[in-house]
Target: Mediator of RNA polymerase II transcription subunit 22
Amino acid sequence: MNKGGVGDGPTAAAAAAAAQKQKNLLQRVDNDIGSIVDNFSFIVNVARVNDPPVRNSQEAFMMEVRASRMVQAADSLLKLVSELKQTAIFSGFASLNDHVEQRCEEFEQLAEKTERALSGVAEEAAASLKELESHYYSSAQRNSLICEDCELE
Model:
């Protein structure tokens, strides 16, 4: 499962796309909140009662327009929250997959390290066995046992 450098391109592209999406989302939040604040400020400023009835009706219409814009901005923020929830769910799966892949790579490295250690132990055991065999075959006790076996026959 060693990917080499194959996974580097899509990962970098995904990171760039995520950064761009985050920038766009923050810009949307700033725009929507700015719109709500501006429209609310306008409504508060216009909410004065004036004597001329024509002016009051114009201001009432402007207040309705601004209130409508505030509702649109609030609706946009609600959609943004929904989008963020979906992103969190799906990016949670993506990060979970990344974590699983990372753990797989760690276990593969651990398996390789264990295999190297086991082969080292096997080599040491083989060398020790060879040394023990050479001591046994060249020992005086073995030679005396062989000679006793020869006399018994």
